[in-house]
Amino acid sequence: MNPVQAVSQAAPRLLCAFGLAALIACGGGGGGASSAGTPAPGTDPAPPASTEYWAKTLGGSQADSLYLIIPTADGKLLMGGVTQSFGAGGTDVWLVKAGLDGALVSQFAYGGAGEDKVYDLRATPDGGYLLAGSTTSFGASGTQGWVVKLNADLSIQWERRHAPESGYQSSVFTAAVPTGQHIGVLGFQSTTSMDRGLLLDLNADGSLNGQVGLNGNGHDGPGFTRVASACKTPDGGIALAGDADLMLSVYHRGGWFARIAPDLKTVTWSNWIGGSSSSSSFAIIRPTSDNGFILAGQSPDSIGFTDPWFVKIGETGLTAWQNGIGGSGWNSALDIQELPNGHFQLLGSTSAFGAGSYDLWLIDLMASGAVQWQKTLGTTASEGFFGAALHSDPSTGAAYLVSDRTAAGSASSDAWFLKVKPGGICPPLDAVSSGYAYSTGKLPTSLALSTPALNGTLTPTAATRTPIGTP
After folding, report:
1. What pLDDT is attached to residue 292?
2. DSSP state letter for 394
3. pTM of the entire structure?
4. Which residues lie below 8 Å from residue 177, measured CB to CB, with a gap of 6+?
5. Among 14, 33, 106, 404, who pairs with 228 as Cys (CB 3.0-4.6 Å)?
6. Is residue 387 within 8 Å of residue 13, measured between CB atoms?
7. Low-confidence residues in the chain, pLDDT < 50
8. pLDDT digits (tens, 9 = 90+) for 283-299
């Protein structure tokens, strides 16, 4: 069983770095070089044999993983993840900038001596970037939500850590969304028995303008509500997705999504989707060209495993369609993007198909949600166990993928960076295989979303940025 799944049924993207920490705690460290070789810090391996598609590993001698990727204003790619090979100690946030040809431009580690992680990476209107994650390096003991504003050159402009309100033991930021004059920072704070969603309204300088708690189960009592992903809406508000529990005749945990007005405190609508014995969750929400949203995550199948689950919703939160695809193993959806032709490109991970214990799973969905084609991308190593992300280039149709890659018999991981041609055509790997599709039958349930006021504190930290080698 996938240890990430054993820890929790939360969204796979949210848990990717938690899973990496678990691997480290269970004996991580030591060499993790793949058969492709590990580049020296800050250097680029031999040029790819083809600029049409390629695959390469990045990392050092300890456990490293990349699972976020966005395009930059200067026509390059910025990738995010965590590293133990570089930085100030413990686990640090790792950012890598590269060209569309795969050549490294620069890379930096951010953090202190503790555990510092990133779960969201966004470009900002001023050419900089926002990181949302967690830290144990600064301030009081325990995990605290951490948001960092970077300049265009990846230097730190400001940063803030969030101490949870009284009664909660930790907080985690999973999304930071610039909405115009403000920044919506979302996540959750936790005790040993419950999670509550969290929304902070920050000014452009990082100062706190307001904060509310989010309860997707429609009440303020004990329960679980976690925000895994968020995006800006056309009116300057925020749409979010994650998971929440609901008491009907029995306990259920299902996928939850909501829309917040531009004031970042008023709920426009909130919906929950689950089945009779559901432990479903959403990992990602993206805006679509029709002013609606596409969501992806995981849902249990009939034989005790999980499968990728994708749901299209309209501007008012009503479900247009939903579908799933899977097999007899642990399968999850990790990222999804709308393509210029109206299709959706879904990236997931699978233990049911492919060459290794885990492989990346690239799926093309038609506008109706039906599967057009699908391929696994992997080797006899394990890829996509902790997380993965994609960027689809609208001008060429190529897809750029990042994930972790752990060689067979190794206790530590490297990052895997691929360029895939349209149609999922990739460099020669160990194997490519296919799965099968099926339709789900879950029904939406509308809920009222409560937003109690919170009193957590937001204070500056003193993280360092560590250059890694010389590009």
Report:
1. 97
2. T
3. 0.83
4. 122, 183, 184, 185, 186, 230, 231, 232, 238
5. 14
6. yes
7. 1-49, 219-221, 249, 430-452, 470-471
8. 999 999 999 999 998 88
Q: What pLDDT digit, counting tens, does each position of 352-365 carry?
A: 777 778 888 899 99
CA atoms within 13 A on the CB side of 176: 29
Q: What is the 8-class DSSP label of residue 421?
A: B
Per-residue model confidence (pLDDT) at position 93: 95
Q: 8-36+52-467: what fold?
A: Methylamine Dehydrogenase; Chain H (2.130.10)
d(C-alpha 34, C-alpha 46), whole Å: 15
Which SS3 state, helix, strand or coil, does residue 12 take? helix
CB atoms within 10 A of CB 74: 10
Nearest Cα to 288, choosing from 363, 338, 224, 218? Answer: 338
Alpha-carbon distances of 75 from 66, 84, 470, rounded to whole Å: 20, 29, 21
301 contacts 326 by C-beta, under 8 angstroms: yes
What confidence score (pLDDT) does residue 461 get?
A: 67
Question: What are the domain boundaries of the chain?
Answer: 8-36+52-467
Distances (CA, A) of 21 to 117, 297, 342, 451: 10, 21, 38, 32
Q: Strands, DSSP E only, in 261-358? A: 267-274, 281-287, 293-300, 306-313, 319-326, 331-338, 344-350
Please return the burial class of 316, using the count of CB atoms within 10 Å of its CB with bins 0-12, 13-18 and 19+.
exposed
